[in-house]
Amino acid sequence: MRKEARLIRWIFYIVVVAALFFLGFIIGWFAKPTEPNTANNNVSSKNLREFLDEMQSDQIREHLRKFTQLPHLAGTEQNLKYAEQIKKEWQEFGLDSVEMVPYDVLLSYPNKSQPNYISIVDHLGNEVFNTSLAEPIPDGYENISDIVPPYSAFSAKGQPEGDLVYVNYGRTEDFFQLQREMGINVTGKIVIVRYGKIFRGNKVKNAMLAGAQGIIMFSDPADYWAADVQPYPDGWNLPGGGAQRGNVLNLNGAGDPLTPGYPAKEYTYRFGLEDGVGLPKIPVHPIGFHDAIHLLKNMGGEIPPNNWKGALNVSYRIGPGFTNDFKSQKVRMNIHTNNQVTRIYNVIGRIRGAQEPDRYVILGGHRDAWVFGGIDPMSGAAVVHEIVRSAGKLLSKGWRPRRTIIFASWDAEEFGLLGSTEWAEDNAKLLQERAVAYINADSSIEGMYTLRVDCTPSLHTLVYNITKQIASPEDGEEEVSLYESWHKKDNWTDDRDAPRISKLGSGSDFEAYFIRLGIAAGRARYTKNKKTERYSSYPVYHSVYETFEIVEKFYDPSFRRLWAVAQVRGGLIFQLADSPLLPLDANEYADSLRKYTQSIKQLAQRHQDKMEIYKVSFDSLLSAVQNFTVAARDFHERLKTHNREDSLQVRIVNDQLMYLERAFIDPLGLPGRPFYRHVIFAPSSHNKYAGESFPGIYDALFDIENSADPEKSWEEVKRQISIAAFTVHAAAMTLTPPA
Amino acid sequence: MRKEARLIRWIFYIVVVAALFFLGFIIGWFAKPTEPNTANNNVSSKNLREFLDEMQSDQIREHLRKFTQLPHLAGTEQNLKYAEQIKKEWQEFGLDSVEMVPYDVLLSYPNKSQPNYISIVDHLGNEVFNTSLAEPIPDGYENISDIVPPYSAFSAKGQPEGDLVYVNYGRTEDFFQLQREMGINVTGKIVIVRYGKIFRGNKVKNAMLAGAQGIIMFSDPADYWAADVQPYPDGWNLPGGGAQRGNVLNLNGAGDPLTPGYPAKEYTYRFGLEDGVGLPKIPVHPIGFHDAIHLLKNMGGEIPPNNWKGALNVSYRIGPGFTNDFKSQKVRMNIHTNNQVTRIYNVIGRIRGAQEPDRYVILGGHRDAWVFGGIDPMSGAAVVHEIVRSAGKLLSKGWRPRRTIIFASWDAEEFGLLGSTEWAEDNAKLLQERAVAYINADSSIEGMYTLRVDCTPSLHTLVYNITKQIASPEDGEEEVSLYESWHKKDNWTDDRDAPRISKLGSGSDFEAYFIRLGIAAGRARYTKNKKTERYSSYPVYHSVYETFEIVEKFYDPSFRRLWAVAQVRGGLIFQLADSPLLPLDANEYADSLRKYTQSIKQLAQRHQDKMEIYKVSFDSLLSAVQNFTVAARDFHERLKTHNREDSLQVRIVNDQLMYLERAFIDPLGLPGRPFYRHVIFAPSSHNKYAGESFPGIYDALFDIENSADPEKSWEEVKRQISIAAFTVHAAAMTLTPPA
């Protein structure tokens, strides 16, 4: 029995050992996470907080001061120096890599030995009045050389002489009114228009189409003067001697005019100037309102309607030409600006993603400035600099984002978004396959009122979430979030009780990323009160008066507004790069599509009778949008029960979210604009600044009013509706389960 | 002490328990795989074997018999019936889903009450000879109705009358020779050309450009007759009464002529016929050689060079018109063919991928046939059917591929690849983002000699690997692999000691997938001995004599050749869908690019003098290819040490492999051909069947010979070289580490 007992005891021991082992094994098995890199949301939100808190307003002030000391026009030595300095500092901040990426693009400069100006000449050809050759230099900058005088970049050369015709803002509708209602033909005339309302390149194109032999643009105080504000340096209004520089291209997203579609590298084939994209064929020149008075005051012809009158003490007569007393006088433009292929430099910095290095979140803004760039673009570049510094700080503490972050300091934005577009062309395949989002960082401030955000609908929710985690920069709002402050000042009343977010138009570097490649994009800045401040842009826009001091003295003395903008832009890229599940919202896209469909339909219904005659129906588009709405809702419904532990399955739904914006790209482009390919958002053909929804349909409807062949125009409307319906259906498909 | 001993014993127990638990935990921890779905290569290759072995030649025979009983032209009741039958059987075989996908596309049929024919008319207008209205019906099919007579689909209607001019094969170079060397103008004439060498649509385009008012195409025995073979039914040669049907479009990849770029759905906007893509403006008609003799025998004019002479007992005089004796006779075409928007049906079946449902491997081939489709396409469709049956069998045993497999039975291929192109347009976004590869399954056999494979270079290695696992179908080669048999018969001597693989051209349904969307693609079939058998295609191509019996009696009595083709096609999709690491080879792409660059450079160097004058250099392209070669080598080098246990990291490199082909797509398309977008592979503009490498450069060089402005043409060559260099550089970038 003793042996038996021993045996039993041994069996008992073995069973216990085995059971314990088994217990341990089981616990070990289940204790181990399937997914080694499951992100911990608390860690992630702690990191976000730390990232935002690291940013400092004083640092932004110093970045801005440092990079606005000297003029740094694209293609100049000084802009290369700033690029090198940014590269060096980004490296010091701790980015994984920083490189200079050059392109050789067509730029345009005044001829230094033959200044541009406009004259009034008498019957003997004597110049009885000449416009100024430069703006009065602001205090403290007297010894600065290389301040480029106001000019229209890419103007044709020439010295046309003729009678002036005043055409208000030079919009399509202004020229229609001039030609059809007022019966004035501008063929062979020189057109004078005021700046504002639309992109200046569109004014130039309209003048060319109307047959003008030259065009002058002036800043009218009605459009560039805020009430009760002094001109710079005593306030932030545009002095009478100031004028707005700017390019006058009609690129429609082509980038470098000589290499459309391809990056402007050494080996790249270049078209001749005569085949370049968007180059105006007539001379163009900008002037300030002091000079404008001289050109306008003696004009003859009819008195225009009130909405054609600006705020100068002249009658705004239309012309052509001067009144009887001055009939023999003509206007002569003297333009000697040169086009020149010039090397530009983007600075590209990277933080390698830890888990998904092949997913890119991009923060890009330009560095080149017309002169000092105090607002445009350095108030944006200083903010990017601070975001890079802050990200570097986190990196040094061991953090690394899930996805790759790319920081870009673009060159030659002012010459047609060239640096950003060439880089997009150079990297198109990688971006198309890998880019999650592009956040733009041009000027951070254009007013002192509240936040302004323009972005794709799928970013709405993230923008709201981020702004709730940022403090209002306004005095007396210390306890208020940026979201609340913004909401109070700019509620989206028509549609919803939330801060207003607008559509993206164009005119800054997001264009190639959003409108050509279909990458989710957004921008944020501080802005004016649109309801009460009616001037265009901000008064000193593109003048020599955009200095560090105008920001420090007037726009943001505490630099808390720029700091808030830094946190918004930085917070967006942080969340896009680090959230395990991409923070993109397809339901918001659906809501927006419904709204846009209603409004384009309403626009068409102004011609209800014609719609019936030509059998134009929006049913297919409405049904596609309904289909998309259901697909988006179901997609987010499924996400709620989705397995977030399996990194491959998370990647699959993230890919659906990432590629949603891509689904709206039509590879064939919009009619006549091969590089504008976004079916939902693009600028109207009549104003690059204004983002239209369903731009193909919008443009076709716009053309109806002007059509010689209404049947053909309505056919185009129908074709565009069909393309929009197809595109929305295709986008809905991308959200359904993949097999 | 007793207490102490007990304590010690307890401590001992606890330590033992803890140690055991810990041991168990540790073993449990490490025993559990990190990656729940790590594919076991042995399991995978066992599954492949089982999949291949499941396929049976007798089954293929029965599938072919079943689907060749009745004519099933696209758009007919019978072709819909076969679609429904295929759908039903695929469901029974066990696919996860099968759906019918309809489109409404432009088709073209003869007018049943007004037959098409060609007459010789005398001076009174009497028809002294008429071509036959139909082919003699083969035995056993006498009671079949709905056999469409030979016609040229999409021919313009009309009854042009005039003198004949014989222009050999109707190639660009034939028309050049006619016009420049022989001095003959075909304006207002009716052109007669022999079939062969190039796609018939290119012949028609050339005739239109030359000003002809009609074109007749005939099958010359020199091109459609194999030596020592009887005409059908006693052999597989084309009888003299047989003629080749076919469409005469110049679509260049547009799909449905009325809805280029968009799927032809109910709501889709359709162009009017006058704006349709690629529709010929002149009447076109095909005839057999019995009829051709009557038209040719009395022709006058010069005797042509020997390479213009076919094998008929006529002198092949060029014309214009008949000899003196018959001078008053003219030729009249009587063409009443109608274009008609018609519903077509693709059948789409799916097996959902287990781990990556959002990765698609596609096996597609058409179902519509000109008549019975004994060879074209049902010898291909029967093979697809057997592959689906075999896959279903594996599914029923619990297997499921890693990725999604899509099977497609396309409609209306014969009318311009319409079914496959419309579906590609409909699903373009999904395919661009998710498609791994497209394997085409048109006719499985066109000869009795050996295997023929045309595919993208990245598939070379997989093709070799698969064919090594398949037995040769030839008698007496029971122990020989298909690879060895093929290698022996068609060695790639010039380049390497391996079986020859050719470039993809066009002319079948892979076109939209490969050339428009940039999806890796390939095709495989059994072929003739190209060195000894000089006829075009196979003699009965597109005639009523393509029956089940011609395959069973002559081409593949044992059905082992079709069986081998089934295993090749099936093996390719199996490995593409199931290998954890995608079996695509970037090094092979690099090797091919080097070869293509050398040969296009040699082509250009025929004009060495001009290259110097116009400063044309291939250096940028050579350097890009070198860059690509290094990137590919490094990529595969890194793969060797890549962590294959981490499914996310495997997905990342697989994405690089999948998107490699996409990198060669230029969204702007080739010049004048927006839907041909592959910079490396596309048909020449002069022959849709021939795949050229660097087609942009090739076409530009081709134009040099014919250029009125050589400087401009050389500029285009330079531009195309620059585009090619950029594209290859961009493709290299996609292979470098992603951040």
From TrEMBL, chains A, B:
One Gene Ontology term of the biological-process aspect is: proteolysis
Q: Where are the transmembrane segments?
A: 7-31
> What EC number(s) is this enzyme filed under?
3.4.17.21
State the organism named in the record: Mastacembelus armatus (zig-zag eel)
Q: Which reaction does it catalyse?
A: Release of an unsubstituted, C-terminal glutamyl residue, typically from Ac-Asp-Glu or folylpoly-gamma-glutamates
Which CDD domains does the entry link to?
M28_PSMA_like, PA_GCPII_like
Which UniProt keywords are given for this protein, alphabetically ordered? Answer: Calcium, Carboxypeptidase, Cell membrane, Dipeptidase, Glycoprotein, Hydrolase, Membrane, Metal-binding, Metalloprotease, Multifunctional enzyme, Phosphoprotein, Protease, Signal-anchor, Transmembrane, Transmembrane helix, Zinc
Q: Main role?
A: Has both folate hydrolase and N-acetylated-alpha-linked-acidic dipeptidase (NAALADase) activity. Has a preference for tri-alpha-glutamate peptides. In the intestine, required for the uptake of folate. In the brain, modulates excitatory neurotransmission through the hydrolysis of the neuropeptide, N-aceylaspartylglutamate (NAAG), thereby releasing glutamate. Also exhibits a dipeptidyl-peptidase IV type activity. In vitro, cleaves Gly-Pro-AMC.
Sequence ranges assigned to domain Transferrin receptor-like dimerisation in this UniProt record: 616-735
Cofactor names from the entry are: Zn(2+)
Quaternary context: Homodimer.
Gene3D superfamilies assigned: 3.50.30.30, Transferrin receptor-like, dimerisation domain (1.20.930.40), Zn peptidases (3.40.630.10)
Output a single Gene Ontology CC term carried by this record: plasma membrane
Where does the PA domain lie?
161-249
Cite the InterPro entries for this sequence.
PA_dom_sf, PA_domain, Peptidase_M28, Peptidase_M28B, TFR-like_dimer_dom, TFR-like_dimer_dom_sf
Which family does the similarity line name?
Belongs to the peptidase M28 family. M28B subfamily.
User: What Pfam families would the database entry show?
Assistant: PA, Peptidase_M28, TFR_dimer
Main enzyme class: hydrolase
Q: What is this protein called?
A: Glutamate carboxypeptidase 2
